[in-house]
Design brief:
Number of helices: 2
Radius of gyration: 25 Å
Number of strands: 2
Number of domains: 1
Distance between the termini: 32 Å
Strand order of the largest sheet: 1-2
Largest sheet: 2 strands, antiparallel
Order of helices and strands: HEEH
Length: about 90
C-alpha cells in the first residue's frame, strides 16, 4: 500500500504534536503538585543558643526559605505558563 508522502508527514506531525502536548501537560501538572506541596508544608530549623553566663539555652525555630519562595514561585509559574503558550502556539 502506497500512502502519499504529504499524508504521512501530516500524520506524523499530528502524532508528534499530541505527544508533545501530553508531555507538556504532564510536566506542568507534576511541577504544580511540587509547588503546592512546598506551599502546604513549612520547613523549620531548630536553633539552640547556649548562654554560659545564665546557664540557660535559648531555643528558636526559624522558617527555612526554599529556592521557591512565594515571589520565586510566582515568577516560575508565570514562566511555565508563557513557555506552555509559546510551545502550543508553535
Amino acid at each position: 500500500v502506497n500512502i502519499p508522502l504529504f499524508l504521512q508527514e501530516n500524520y506524523n506531525a499530528k502524532v508528534t504534536a499530541l505527544k508533545n502536548n501530553s508531555l507538556l501537560t504532564f510536566a506542568e501538572n507534576q511541577f504544580l503538585k511540587y509547588i503546592t506541596n512546598l506551599k502546604s508544608h513549612h520547613r523549620f530549623i531548630h536553633m539552640i543558643r547556649e548562654d554560659p553566663a545564665s546557664c540557660q539555652d535559648q531555643s528558636t525555630f526559624k522558617l527555612l526559605e526554599t529556592r521557591y519562595s512565594n515571589s520565586r514561585r510566582k515568577k516560575v509559574r508565570k514562566r511555565m505558563e508563557w513557555l506552555a503558550y509559546q510551545y502550543r502556539k508553535g
